[in-house]
Amino acid sequence: MSNRKQHNQEAGYVAERMNPHVKGCKVVIYVAEKQGLDVGEKYAVVCDSHSTLVGDSSLKAARLSMKAPENFCDGCRKIVDEQMEATIDQLQTQYWYLTSEMSWADKQGHIADQEKLRKERFHIVGELLAAGHTGSIDSKLDDFYRW
Q: Which of 27, 66, 84, 99 has a CA 20 to 30 Å removed from the CA of 17?
């Protein structure tokens, strides 16, 4: 048996893929009845790393679940949330750095540098919004100065 498709000899096996959030683990689709899983649907999608599963009525829906286990697996969702928090933290740090650089460029009269930094900062705001940040961009900085 190949490690590439390690579940292909199991009853009701349909498909599997690497878990995008847990290195070395798989997310597997089974025909639920043949695997002995009572999920109330034809297919069961199993997150091997966290031993969670969800039922889906169509193979198309099961494949979508397999590609995004964070939609049904709390363990995977927690990993995604932590990664998103880290991304937001990093983007906020970049934003603050650019803000201080803009202030320096303004004091020095470097208009071209200031415009370039303004564009970079605007790009970071877009990335923060795409990462799901909903609060003030300066909220962490505000907390720091609140002491």
A: 84
